[in-house]
Amino acid sequence: RFSPDGQTLATASSDTTAKLWRSDGSLITTLQGHTAAVLAVRFSPDGQTLATASSDNTVKLWRSDGSLITTLQGHTAAVLAVRFSPDGQTLATASSDTTVKLWSNNLDDLMAWSCDWLHDYLSTNPTVTDDERAACDLPPREPQLLSVWGNTVQFVSRLFR
What we know:
Helix content: 10-25%
């Protein structure tokens, strides 16, 4: 695959690597990190990120200089294909486990998903600070009056309304 500017070619290999080449055929760098064959490579629309898909069930994201950004895990079989959305904020991966996964690089989307997932924990855990709750736009924890009897704790009322 060529980079969007046409100056770099990315290749996948069964030797567990991907390589970046200049348009004159000279090697720029070898991307090492997968533990099985690399099956697909794809540049982000801005050319700054490269995604590699592998038989090791992972996708790796690399900077254009060849340094590893992160490894995406979640598929249970070889990842066969990778594609960036036109804005570069979402990566679609297809696997022989018969799933397609969408990976968001949009911080707002990730924050919303994370806060939704953690809502009950943040709302009810007494050790979570008000600053931690505020990160997900949850109000500070209100002081509560509890009735304790034996091993049972029962909510009675809020102290402030």
